[in-house]
Amino acid sequence: MSFPFILAEASTNPVIKTVSKIAEDFGANWWGLLCQIISFCIVAFLLAKFAYNPVLAVLEARRQKIEESIANSKRIQEQLADAQRTSEQILAKANADATKMIEETRAAAKQVSEKENQRAVQQAAEIIQKAREAGEAEQKRLMAELKKELSRLVVDTTAKVTGKILTAADQQKITAEAGKELAA
After folding, report:
1. Which helix (H) or strand (E) holds 19?
2. CA pair distance 19, 146, nearest whole angstrom
3. What is the DSSP letter of 166?
4. How far apart are CA 78 and CA 68, in angstroms?
5. CA–CA distance from 172 to each of 65, 86, 96, 142, 184 (Å)?
6. Nearest to residue 150, comparing CAs of 121, 180, 120?
7. What is the CA radius of gyration of the chain?
């Protein structure tokens, strides 16, 4: 069937007659329109095959990457939140342990301080006792020297008063008597 035959048959239909009249008024070229439609279909096919579908594929790949990135971001945020909670728990435990250790150290320091105070008191008592003993020993030594010196003085004085030279026996007798009197 040819195009003019189709047009001849269509001329009996009133709607087609109206469309044909409008097309003639505007100067429509049916062969040109048909070539334009075929050309448009070829270009549309080529664009769809070589341009539109690859662009859609690239867009789909980007969409998937974006979705993966969003999913990764959410997963990373969850992991970060978990890590933060874990670090807070670890810090809380470390603070509790540190507080416990500080209290234990204070208690130990208090015990050591008390022991050191007791030891210092004991050492002070020992030093005082040794000082007393040393004082008593020094006093005894000084008393012995004093007795010896006093005896010598008594002997010298007696010798001078009596005007005679005393013998060793006399000197011992006078020294013994002077020692008895000093002891009393």
Report:
1. helix 14-26
2. 162
3. P
4. 15
5. 126, 99, 85, 20, 19
6. 180
7. 67
**C-alpha pair distances (Å), 113 with each of 31, 99, 120, 170:** 116, 21, 10, 65
Buried b (16+ CB within 10 A) or exposed e, 117-148: eeeeeeeeeeeeeeeeeeeeeeeeeeeeeeee
Express each pLDDT in 7-22 by its tens digit.
555 556 777 778 777 7
| Whole-angstrom distance, CA of residue 91 vs CA of residue 94 | 5
Q: What is the C-alpha to C-alpha distance for residues 31 and 21, in angstroms, rounded to an integer?
A: 17
Q: Judging by beta carbons within 10 Å of its beta carbon (0-12, 13-18, 19+), is residue 154 exposed, middle or buried?
A: middle
pTM greater than 0.70: no
Q: Which amino acid is at 89?
A: Q
Range 13-50 burial, b when 16+ CB lie within 10 A, else e: eeeeeeebeeeeeeeeeeeeeeeeeeeeeeeeeeeeee
Tell me the per-residue pLDDT of 41-58, one tens digit each, with 9 for 90 and over: 999 999 888 888 888 889
CA-CA distance, 57 to 64, in Å (whole number)?
11
